[in-house]
From TrEMBL:
Domain RmlD-like substrate binding: 6-285
Name the record gives this protein: dTDP-4-dehydrorhamnose reductase
Family: Belongs to the dTDP-4-dehydrorhamnose reductase family.
Biological-process GO terms, alphabetical: dTDP-rhamnose biosynthetic process
Pfam families referenced in this protein's UniProt entry, alphabetically: RmlD_sub_bind
Annotated organism of origin: Streptomyces guryensis
Enzyme Commission no: 1.1.1.133
Keywords tagged on the record: NADP, Oxidoreductase
Domain of life of the native organism: Bacteria
Molecular function in Gene Ontology: dTDP-4-dehydrorhamnose reductase activity
Function comment: Catalyzes the reduction of dTDP-6-deoxy-L-lyxo-4-hexulose to yield dTDP-L-rhamnose.
Length: 294
C-alpha cells in the first residue's frame, strides 16, 4: 500500500532532497515551504494535516540561524519548539508518524567519545535549547509514533553550506585558515533523506521503535580535515589549507568542540547507519561543484 508523506520546510536543502528521494520511490508526497505553512500556527498546521491526510510527516522546518538565536531565543523557540509541538498534536489526532529533524547542538560538545542516542542532553546555546524543546514536545505527545533524528554538519547541492563555500573560496583564495579544534561528521543531505524515508517506512511497518536516532555520516573529522579533502577532490593542493582554532572566529553562540554522534539505535529499526563521510563526499562532489561553479 502506498503511503502519503507531508514534508514541512520543503524549500530547504534537506527538504528538497527528501522530496526527490520520495519521488524516486514513486510514492505520494506533499512539500510545504515556509511560505506555504507557518508551523507556529496551530490552526494552519491542523488544517494542512487534515487536508493532506499523511501517513508520515517529516518536519524539516527550523530556525537554523545559530548566532541570531542568542538574541532572539523566544522567536527561535516558537519555530523550533512550538512548531514541532503543533505538528505532534495534529499527528496524534490523525495517527500519522512524525519524524522530527534535530541537531547535535542538544549536547554540550565536550565529549571524547561518540554521543549515544540516550546520552543526557546539555545544550550550551539558545539554538540547542530550542531544538531540545522540539524533541521533547514530539516525544511527549507521540511516545509511540514520534521519531527524532539528530543530524549535524549538513551539506548538499540545494543550498548554502560549508562545502559549497570552500569550493567557492578555493577559486579565489591563495590560502585558507580553517578551524581544526571542532570535530564532527560531515553529512550529505541525500544520505540523510534516504535514512529518513527508510525510517518512515519502517515506522509504518511497526519495525522502527519510536524515539531518538542519530542521522550523521560514519567516521569523523574537523572542519580543517574536511576542507583538505575538498581541495583534494578539486585537484588543488591541500597544503593551501592551514589549521587554526575556534578562538580565531569568535561568534555569539558557542560551537560544540566535539559533535560526533553514535549510531547504535539504527540496528533496532533494521537499518544500517550512514556510510563514511569521505565516500559520501566523493559521490556528492560533482553535483556540489556544478551548483557552485556552473
Amino acid at each position: 500500500m502506498t503511503s502519503t508523506w507531508l514534508i514541512t520546510g520543503a524549500g530547504g536543502m534537506l527538504g528538497m532532497d527528501l522530496l526527490a528521494r520520495l519521488a524516486a520511490d514513486g510514492g505520494q508526497s506533499v512539500g510545504l515551504t515556509r511560505a506555504d505553512l507557518d508551523i507556529t500556527d496551530p490552526e494552519a498546521v491542523h488544517s494542512a494535516v487534515a487536508e493532506h491526510e499523511p501517513d508520515v510527516v517529516v518536519n524539516c522546518a527550523a530556525w537554523t540561524a545559530v548566532d541570531d538565536a542568542e538574541t532572539q531565543e523566544a522567536e527561535a523557540l516558537r519555530i523550533n519548539g512550538d512548531g514541532p509541538r503543533n505538528l505532534a498534536a495534529s499527528c496524534a489526532k490523525t495517527g500519522a508518524k512524525l519524524l522530527q529533524v534535530s541537531t547535535d547542538y542538544v549536547f554540550a560538545g565536550d565529549g571524547t567519545a561518540p554521543y549515544a542516542e540516550d546520552a543526557p542532553p546539555a545544550p550550551r546555546s539558545a539554538y540547542g535549547r530550542t531544538k531540545l524543546a522540539g524533541e521533547q514536545a514530539v516525544l511527549t505527545a507521540l511516545p509511540d509514533a514520534g521519531h527524532v533524528v539528530r543530524t549535524a554538519w549538513l551539506y548538499g547541492a540545494g543550498g548554502g553550506n560549508f562545502v559549497r563555500t570552500m569550493i567557492k573560496l578555493e577559486g579565489v583564495k591563495d590560502t585558507l585558515d580553517v578551524v581544526d579544534d571542532q570535530r564532527g561528521q560531515p553529512t550529505w543531505t541525500v544520505d540523510l533523506a534516504d535514512r529518513l524515508v527508510r525510517l518512515g517506512h519502517s515506522a509504518l511497518a511497526g519495525t522502527a521503535p519510536a524515539g531518538i536516532y542519530h542521522g550523521t555520516s560514519s567516521g569523523e573529522t574537523t572542519w580543517y580535515g574536511l576542507t583538505r579533502e575538498i581541495f583534494r577532490l578539486l585537484g588543488a593542493d591541500p597544503e593551501r589549507v592551514r589549521p587554526t582554532t575556534s578562538a580565531a572566529y569568535v561568534r555569539p553562540a558557542p560551537r560544540p568542540a566535539y559533535s560526533v554522534l553514535g549510531h547504535d539505535r539504527w540496528a533496532a529499526a533494521g537499518i544500517e547507519p550512514i556510510r563514511d563521510w569521505r565516500e559520501a563526499l566523493r559521490e556528492a562532489f560533482p553535483a556540489l561543484l556544478a551548483a557552485e561553479r556552473p
